[in-house]
Amino acid sequence: MTARARLTRQGEAYNRLRIVLGRRPVSPDPDLPNTWLPRTMAEALPDLARGLARTRRPVFLGARIRIRAAGRITWGRGSRIGRGSTVDGYASEGVVLGPGSRIGDYSTITCTSHVTRLGKGVSIGARTGFGDYCHFGSSGGIVIGDDVLGGSYVSFHSQDHVFSDPHALIRDQGVTEGGIMIGDNCWIGAKVTFLDGAKVGSHSVVAAGAVVKGKFPDHSLIGGVPARLLRSLASSATED
After folding, report:
1. pTM greater than 0.70
2. Most exposed residue of 115, 134, 145, 183, measured as fewest CB within 10 angstroms of its CB?
């Protein structure tokens, strides 16, 4: 069997597994070494075994993961949480991880930050993935759509402090919890920060390092500190 034929057979097996786990098939690069796909699948087996043992679902859990309130977490088929991460399910609406979703290594999903307020929670759509070291502060609620691509060090903060009274302690002035919403098919660059009240429409791109607050329509290209609309991508969609 030629190297190309071996890679083709390996790719077919890999895609069958992806489809079973709720992910889209891919076309492996023909220049990949023949050992790459088998090694990748073999390295995923301990995570799958760990997921089956802890959730009784076909999900991938990396080593040294902390899970709180597991009964309030909904695990989509094939979802993955990277090693060293924390998932806190203590929330009124729990934590929902869509089929084929992925959260990178050393990330945190936190829902309740204080004993006086039960948090709302987070919903992450199907086939949505984020890189390593991401933070999902879900006290005020986070909803992320399907097929969203997120880089590393992306953070969501769905609660904000009120500081209108200059004579009172900020901690005593309460908080806002408008929540954060991200539409479908968005690309979020590395180190983007989403603040409470941020709403980004579907098919949008957020430039790396942006600090996002406010509402942006579908097909937006967003960037800057604070983030602003750089241009609409709707014309590109129309031309296609």
Report:
1. yes
2. 115
